[in-house]
Structures are given as C-alpha cells and as structure tokens.
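Researcher: Re-running this chain for the archive, since the previous output was lost when a drive failed. Same request as before.
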Amino acid sequence: MKSFVFRFGLVLAVLVAVNLLSSFLFFRVDLTQEGRYTLSEATENLLTNLDDDIHVNVYLTGNLPPAFKRLETSVRETLAEFQARASQDLTYRFIDPTANPDSKKRAELQTQLIQKGLSPTSLISNTDGNQRTEQLIFPWAVVSYKGREQTVLLLRGNRSSSKEEQLNQSIENVEYELASAIRRLTIREKKVLGVAVSYTNVEPLRLSDLLATLQEFYDIKLINLQDSRDLVGLDGLIVPKPDRAFSEADKYKIDQFVVNGGKALFFVDGLKIDSVGREGTYAQPLDLNLNDLFFRWGVRVNNDIIKDLSCALIPLNVGDMGDKPNVQMLPWRFFPLINTFGKSPIVRNLDAIYSRFTSTLDTVQAVGIVKTPLLMTSQYTKILKAPALVSYNEARQQPDPRTYNDGVKLVACLLEGRFQSLYTNRILPGDPRAAAFKAQGAAAKIVVCTDGDLLVNDINYRTNTPYPLGYERFSKNTFANKDFVVNAVNYLMDDNGIITARTRQVTIRPLDKIRLREDRLSWQLLNLLGPTVLVAFVGILWQFVRQRKYA
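Model: Regenerated structure tokens:
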C-alpha cells in the first residue's frame, strides 16, 4: 500500500512540475519533412515586435471542395502559429459569406466585400450524376491593425499550372501573404527608394500604380540625377525605361552608389522603337551609355529583339465584313509572355508576366558576383538583330515553329556581391571626387531586366485613370508584373526579410486515383471493420493472458 501511494505521489509530482515548467517554457516540434509548420525567422521577428493587437477575418471557409479545404486548413494552421508567436494579442475569425440563411443579409455582406476589392471566385464542378454545380467563394482575408485594414488574396499561383498545383502554390504562399500584410500595417521606419526620372519620357501617370504600391513599404523619392550631387541617403534606386544616354557624371553616381552597398533595379530596352506601323518600323539600337557599367557588373544587354511563340494577343483588322471592319485578336510574337522562372524567392510561384519588345540578356564573367536568372522566355524564340523590322501585319502570318529555334533566352537577372567600380584607376589624385571614391565596398544587389515596359501601366484614356500594372486591356487579364517588381524591390531592400517565406515548399502527395476507384470497397471495409477486429483481438489476448496467470 505504501509503495502504491509513493508511486502515485511521484507521478502526480512529475505532472505538476511539467505543467509549471510549461507555463514558463514554450516550444513546438515540427515533425513534417518540409517544415510545414515552421515559420521563417523574419516572420517570427515581425510577430515578436508587434506593439498592438491584430485581428484577421478569413472568408475562405464553409462547404468547400476538398482541395480548397486544404487551403483553408493551411490558413488556419498558419494563423495558429502566428498567434502562438505574437507578442501582442493576435485573433482570427473564419466567416462564410454564403452561409447566412437570410438572402438579403447575405447579399449585403457579399456586396460589402466586393466594394472592398475582395472579388469572389466561381467554382464549377460536375457531380457523380453529371450535374453541373457552381459555387461562389471568397478566397480572401482582411488584416486589421490600429483602425487600418489590409486585404490578402489567398488564392495565388501560376495559371498555366494544374488546379492542384495552383492550390499547392497558394498553400506555400500563405505565410508570406499574411506576414506581408502585417508588415505593411506595422512598418515604423521606411527606407528611402529613389526613382530616376531624368532619363525617361514615361509620364508619371504610367508609373503610378507601382509607386502607389511601393509607398506602402518605402518612402518614394523622384530623383533628377543631373541635379543630385550624389545618391547618398537612398537605400535603393529604380531606373525605369531610360531612352537616352547617361552622362559620365551621372553614371559615376550610380557606380559609387552600388559600390557602397546600394540596391538598384534597371528596366532598360536594347532597341528603340518610336512607333509601329502596319507595314513595319525598323527598331534601332538604343545607346544608354551603360554597357560598360553592366559589363563590369557581369551582364550585357544585347541590341536585339525577341519573337516568342508564347505571346500576347493584339486586336488587328484582318479585312472588312460588308461595311464594317473585321477586328480579331491575333498573337503578336513581339509581346512575349514570360512564364519560365529561375530559382529565387522573387519569382517563386509567380504567374506569367506580360512583356513588350524585349531584348536578350547575356551574363559575362565578374569576379565575386553571384548571378541568379529570374525571367526567361520559352524555348520557341527567334532573335532579330538590329535594325529589326517590327510590323503589325506580322500577326497575320502563320509562323513556322521550325524557325523559332533560338531556345530559352534570359530576360532578367539578379546580381549579388561586392561590385568593383568601373572607375578604378581612372580617378586622379587631384580630382575632387578622389576623397570619397571607393573601388570596392559593401555587398550590394542589382536586378537588370531588358524590358523597360515591364513596370509601366496602361491608361484608361476615357477616364484618364491608370490601369493596374500588368493589366492587359484587350484580354482583360492581369499578369504578375507588379508582383515581380515588388518582390524584387523587397528582396533587395529588406535584408533577411519576410520574402524568405516564399522559399517554403509543400510536397504534393496525391493518391492513386485508379487504385482508389478499383479498391474503394476494400479500403472502406478495412477502415470500418479493422478497428473493431483489432479491439476484439486485444481483448481476447488479454483474457488469455489473465487465464494463464490466475488459473
């Protein structure tokens, strides 16, 4: 009796000690192979430095198909991890916008969500009886902080992938999308991002959508290089679609900015195309006086233009039907759709990108510089050297795929390392710039893209308002141009930032549908009778052991 009391007391003491210890020590163990429940270090730092409460409303819930239920479960699990790590009270609620039995109130809620920009998605599926059903879902979340809100699109992925792959990509992006929204709301001190506008004729309205988005993260400063003594005070620099040669003085400012650890993005063209006629216009080489600087950094922008069989459509009058023009949407190979990406968090799970009059980019040797390809064409390309004839009537012609054999071409590249100055051994001791000159300095990052139009949005000239960046007004599709530029800026400017969460990988482990259909009854019987048989077997075995022991 005493030994029993001692053992019981010992067990009770251990349980009490474990509970007391758990109130002071917190840890979780992620046993999944890909670390599915492990937050990135940057996300944890973001959550542990919150200074006020955060609430999240998730509208992706209800009677969802199994694939979307996985996405909902992933959102729920991610928010639970956020809640466990947050230094302040982080709460969340799942709301089904289609669940209210009162049709009037249900319609009011859905209208409110649509007015906030939370556009619904229609799911169309066929039941076993070949009946077609349509279901409306809202794959969105809204993060609230200090009276401000940030919407989060939870359904993201490359539309050329299968539905299962798109949903898996959305699951991989859940942490990044939610953490990015929290960062936008809680950012305290913004870095300064300069936009060099002195060498471009692009009107500000055609950069407005991108700049409005970047203002949520950074202080935007329009820079006139001629009037600036240097670029000190900037954390990053964007050079958007320059169309004339840089002076040596301004090129020197950019060189020293990068050598001193600055982050820069260049969206430049290899050829100059003023306008395109029906019969054609010759695109001429564009000399920006940056070739030697790019070459020193490890890349070369070529004076050519890419024709790609993977391309966008343009409206073209192919003839008259009676007294009216016959306008059809035809593929124009001079507008490639970029859907081949490198291995970088900047472009991971990115949708296709809309480009215009794109040139090729080559990499050259640069000591100490790591080059990461970002954007590539399809393998079915044809390269035209300058001067290149660009004609709208080319869309009328049926291309011969055998002539599009130039292969995959690089369009954008990430460069990282300690860059060597172009002006090494060229600055004389008596030069006023000699005192501040550096031949090599801190680690820097650069992105070079050979399409100046990639970050330029179109304009609705009827209302004189900008379209979203990446919106193609003829097909009414929105491509991932803005996502690419914002991701690239965040990667360059936010050291060890939350964009590292985009490297998360969730492996798809699909069931064999053929075996599942053929062996369905066997598996159902096993799941139904297996536990009962197992319990009965254990009971019989236990009874046999007792009889042997006490007989």
